[in-house]
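Class, look over these structure tokens:
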Amino acid sequence: MLDPFQLVSEGSAWAYVIIAVVIAGSAVFPRLPSETMIFTAGAAAGAGALQIPPVILAGAVGSLLGDVIGYGLGPVLGERALRRFARGERGRRSLGWARARSGAAVAR
């Protein structure tokens, strides 16, 4: 089985793509270890296995791509997700709190 952290730490040819994909994926699946990935990539760059500018670029591209994906999924899945997570009284109160303090930025 391929270990993305091992590929990044060893300076694989796929390392920069893996960095961008993991960071982008963490916007949609928050349990992906994007912070650990960028720290691993930074350590690999410090050890000479990767180059620093492409690591920074891969991290920035991954972050931007993840934000775009999340922004695009918002209108599609947003209302359904709100109904699912704001079912009970506590969820409705939390949603009301967020709407009162954020305007249209968090929830319509």
